[in-house]
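Incident log, structure service

09:12 report received: a user says their structure output differs between two submissions of the same chain.
09:20 pulled the input from the user's history:
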Amino acid sequence: MPILIEAAIDSAAAAERAVLEGADRLEVCADLDVGGLTPSLELLVDCLALGVPCVAMARPRAGNFRYDDAERRELERSVTELCRAGAHGVVFGALTSDSAVDAEAAQSIVRLCSGKDTVFHRAFDRTANAHVALTTLISCGVTRVLTSGHSATAAEGIDTLVALSAQAAGRVQILPGGGVRAHNVVDIVRRTRVAQIHARGTEPGVIAAMRDALRAAKC
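09:34 re-ran on a clean worker, output below:
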């Protein structure tokens, strides 16, 4: 089966272009320059009309991923609204003061999503211990973890990604992301044995080049 490409976008124009270039799923965000924030419902609806699955970012602000009670309530409101608007899942991340996964927040969001995909984003790469964090997320029942292997890019974190994929053992999906491009996507996919990959889809040609590289390598 061909490798699934997820494209992160923050505009309707970028979404349409990414799908035309071969993106199989969209991560719908606002303001990717700060790592992505909760998008407008209007943008989500526009993306859903393109006919591919769409997961929507739920992140109330830029900066760290330690949320106070008010921010937590805002996060949960966003999750509910995005799901009601038709998102196939939500992308979120919440950490404790000691840089562990906020298991209480994760469990709450999994419940709110009622069986839709739940994706813990690259806040994972800010945790104190990747393997402990993955164990926690498995116990919380999240669908997928977006990670660069505790490094700046997926290529740099490849050894950790390989270990995380082995640890996941089918209990949670590992989604490598961070600097994934046509020149390194085949190596990342082959070494980690993942079924999907994540890339920013705001620049013309990026998704098409990745799709071509994977096709040429018969991935």
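09:41 both user submissions now match this output. Likely a transient worker issue. Closing.
09:42 reviewer note: The longest strand covers residues 4-9. The chain has a mean pLDDT of 97.
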